[in-house]
Amino acid sequence: MDKLHSTFVEGDRWKYLTNGLKNTLIITFFAVILGMVLGFLIAIVRSSHDKTGKMKILNFFAKIYLTVIRGTPVMVQLLIIYYVIFASVRIDKMFVGILAFGLNSAAYVAEIVRSGIMSIDNGQFEAGASLGLNYRKTMFYIIMPQAFKNVLPALGNECIVLLKETSVAGYIALEDLTKGGDIIRSVTYEAFLPLIAVALIYLVIVMFMTYLVSRLERRLAKSDRG
Fold first, then answer.
1. Residue 50: is its pLDDT beyond 90?
2. Widest pairwise Cα distance in the chain
3. pLDDT tens digits, one per residue of 130-182
4. How much is the pTM?
5. Looking at residue 14, what is its pLDDT?
């Protein structure tokens, strides 16, 4: 109890964890949105090219983007965006974190969604055409809902991975959850309690996200049976 008091209560050091948690959740939330939107768009471009041969130029740039992002560590991407791309301007570190993690996540989301789209039988496209739908409407109303159900577990896992990847945000002096625990450790010279606290908070969040994904999976499965 004395160690808990000296580690977290004295000097209101627990606020480093709460402030860090708030920043981590903000970064994760907006990075997930950015990653999903951009990832779905890239997936549509890539799958449309694979099925129709169109969008060659967009597909070319999409492949370069995927190769670069998936081939380099997210920490290096974060440092490049902050210290190279935005080196000459004053910019909010939170925005840099959201941008870096969102762009990184988009590359993985794109391949996940593309695999889901490509797994849908071509007969579904023919069914859409027989109903008088063009390719865009067929993709939006018929293909994407089925693909989303197929890749939902993988998308949920990507969100969890993204949450944990934000732990490197401290490299640009952004006070996320991990950085908050490290600040407490550097002040108190006590490593065990702050780092265990950080690990437990991440664990609780991941368990909650896993629960939400499983609930959504069951609801989608129930709607299929209905």
1. no
2. 73
3. 888 887 888 888 888 888 888 888 899 999 999 999 999 999 989 999 999 99
4. 0.89
5. 87
Q: Which two tokens stand for residue 142?
A: 């018929």
CA distance 184 to 197: 11
What pLDDT is recorded for position 224? 63
SS (H, E, C) the chain: CHHHHHHHHHHHCHHHHHHHHHHHHHHHHHHHHHHHHHHHHHHHHHHHHHHHCCCHHHHHHHHHHHHHHHHCCHHHHHHHHHHHHCCCCCCCHHHHHHHHHHHHHHHHHHHHHHHHHHCCCHHHHHHHHHCCCCHHHHHHHHHHHHHHHHHHHHHHHHHHHHHHHHHHHHHHCCCCHHHHHHHHHHHHCCCHHHHHHHHHHHHHHHHHHHHHHHHHHHHHHHHHHC
